[in-house]
């Protein structure tokens, strides 16, 4: 009789264990799940349900099944918010942090629709964006929009006149050095071109789209003549920002991209000041909580981020997200910058000073680095 009872107990436990397993697996879409399969055992892989998709602690998005999307009234649309620049100022960090806000649906990759992929059509652009709940704002980030010619006119045709734009700006010399470091890294990791081109959102094309691409490539070639590019970047930072005579090379994209006021003037011709939030990238590094508060207020969404949402990673030397799951930027963030002489740094700072003063006057806003 004892053997029969023991078999009954063991069988019941096995049945309950099996049912529990399938309940957990089947419910991955609605609760955070933690796995021990991680290189960093102190912060195991986690998945956070965000409504229409899950977010991992590597900031990767995975859409739910069609059944769940329909059940939750998920849909795709043009973005309500664009993070348009500036490059190497913390836009990816901002987007990744913001993407965990319950009222935000942020695209995982850069679509580059309004600069290089416009020929693919608006439907293609929308398809690159995440599914969103009815109460979520859709966010897309492409930092090149800030400096690329003609973006404003294209956006005006497609997007709501009430669109919100976010720009992050860092100390200009620091941004320039970071830009050079980024390009150099790509050069030595089998990048075919010196010019900085992301493969995010690189489309597969139909014959018709391929023909349109040839047409728009000609237009892009003309646009490239209208603003500096990375084609003539040197092997060192100094070679990349100075002319043969030792003057600052204003035709260098590394230099030009840090002349923020030049591009803000253009954007303010198309959008009102209250539609553009300009953030201090240095503050984002040191006080992400305060920056996220500013973004929440600007977008008119509920307060969500608290100081305890962030944790300073001593090893990586920057803040990571600690709630709702632990999530940290990839190792490429925080690359060691090349050593640049004080003479060059001072020369560049003097060059940017009048532009920085003009920027503050234009925006009626001060920055920690001016």
Automatic annotation (TrEMBL):
Cystine residue pairs: 320-328
One Pfam assignment: Sulfotransfer_1
Coiled coil: none
Domain Sulfotransferase: 80-323
Catalytic residues, chain numbering: 88 (for sulfotransferase activity)
Molecular function, one GO term: [heparan sulfate]-glucosamine 3-sulfotransferase activity
Keyword annotations of the record: Disulfide bond, Glycoprotein, Transferase
SUPFAM superfamilies, per the entry: P-loop containing nucleoside triphosphate hydrolases
Binding site for 3'-phosphoadenylyl sulfate: 170, 178, 319, 333-337
UniProt-recorded name of the protein: Sulfotransferase domain-containing protein
Source species: Strongylocentrotus purpuratus (Purple sea urchin)
């Amino acid at each position: 009789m004892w053997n029969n009872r023991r078999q009954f107990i063991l069988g019941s436990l096995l049945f309950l264990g099996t049912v529990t397993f399938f309940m957990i697996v089947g419910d991955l879409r609605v609760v955070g799940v933690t796995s021990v399969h991680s290189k960093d055992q102190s912060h195991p892989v986690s998945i956070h349900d965000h409504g229409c998709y899950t977010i991992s602690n590597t900031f990767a998005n995975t859409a739910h099944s069609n059944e769940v999307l329909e059940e939750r009234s998920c849909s795709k649309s043009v973005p309500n918010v664009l993070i348009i620049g500036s490059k190497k100022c913390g836009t990816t960090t901002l987007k990744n942090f913001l993407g965990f806000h319950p009222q935000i649906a942020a695209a995982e990759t850069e679509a580059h629709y309004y600069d290089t992929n416009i020929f693919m059509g608006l439907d293609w652009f929308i398809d690159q964006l995440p599914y969103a709940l009815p109460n979520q704002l859709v966010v897309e980030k492409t930092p090149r929009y800030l400096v690329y010619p003609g973006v404003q006119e294209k956006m005006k045709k497609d997007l709501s006149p009430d669109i919100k734009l976010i720009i992050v700006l860092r100390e200009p010399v620091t941004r320039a050095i970071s830009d050079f470091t980024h390009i150099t890294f790509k050069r030595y990791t089998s990048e075919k071109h010196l010019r900085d081109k992301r493969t995010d959102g690189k489309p597969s094309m139909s014959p018709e789209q391929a023909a349109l691409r040839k047409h728009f490539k000609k237009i892009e070639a003309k646009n490239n003549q209208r603003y500096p590019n990375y084609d003539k970047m040197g092997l060192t930072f100094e070679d990349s920002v100075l002319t043969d005579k030792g003057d600052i090379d204003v035709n260098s994209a590394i230099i030009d991209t840090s002349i923020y006021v030049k591009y803000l003037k253009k954007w303010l011709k198309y959008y009102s000041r209250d539609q553009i939030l300009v953030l201090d990238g240095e503050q984002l590094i040191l006080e992400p909580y305060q920056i996220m508060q500013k973004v929440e207020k600007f977008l008119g969404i509920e307060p969500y981020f608290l100081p305890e949402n962030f944790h300073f990673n001593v090893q990586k030397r920057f803040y990571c997200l600690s709630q709702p799951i632990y999530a940290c930027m990839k190792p490429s963030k925080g690359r060691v910058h090349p050593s640049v002489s004080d003479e060059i740094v001072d020369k560049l700072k003097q060059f940017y000073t009048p532009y920085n003063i003009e920027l503050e006057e234009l925006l009626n806003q001060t920055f920690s680095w001016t």
